[in-house]
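Example (one chain per record):
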Amino acid sequence: MVNYVLLGWLMGLSRVKATLFLQITMNVINMVLAIVFTQMMHWNVTGVASATLIAEALACILGLVLVFRSSIWREWKQSGQMNWRGWFGASELKSVMATNLDLMIRTACLLTMFNLFTARSASFGTDQLAANAILLQIHYIMAYFFDGFANASSIMTGQARGAGDRKMLQRVIHLSWFWTLVTSIVTGGLYLALKEPLISLFTGNATVISLTVPYNGWLAVFPLAAGLGLVFYGVFTGMTVTYPIRNSMLISLLCFFIALFWCVPQYGNHGLWLSFIVFALGRSLFLVIYLPRLQRI
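Predicted structure:
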């Protein structure tokens, strides 16, 4: 939990390189210790768990060092404005809890959708379940292409709100639109061009590979459907306006339910992927409609 707070603090200060250093260090330590504990010391599962715990603890210590050695922390400490009681005021706690609740609901909606998707995939047999699982893994890779823009948008919109700079906010929103469109087209195009070698990285089973082929089109459409929702999630969180994220996810989940129960019985696995795209498209459309309100803040 402390590591999440440290990462959020560093990213909020645009210390992206420090964040990257912290994450790479933690994962390298985790991998090295896991190899030592399992292959050399034969601790098996206990070794993997121990490696993860030690890596997380060391990352926490390193993150605290980065925080306490930062110029912002020193300036804040020297200014004599470290009002610890102000952190726990009723209004501050209410704001934090409301934001966390909105984002928790968002996560719950995502988990519900993916669990239902997996459960319905299993109903088509183990081979189709494996094929859908591979396509879902590739979808995660696609989503990572948008994460960088989402994080950058979050930082920039936070700075714009803190400075009261509406021009900067407008600029960030316009750039978010542009790079979402570009990334969606490039990502979808790359997948269509490289789908065979990419899928073969996940499995050598010819049956499973053949079962992915009819659904490649759905995955190629995914970046266009979900791009705005993924990137503008960063815009809204940067402005600490999270109720649109909550509302858009709830409405998208409802649309997913409707599509799932109507399309799957008629179209099978194609209906399942159509429901998935409906959910992704809903995340984008139902979030973007809140942009005019965001620009008035």
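Caption: Residues 126-163 form the longest helix (38 residues).
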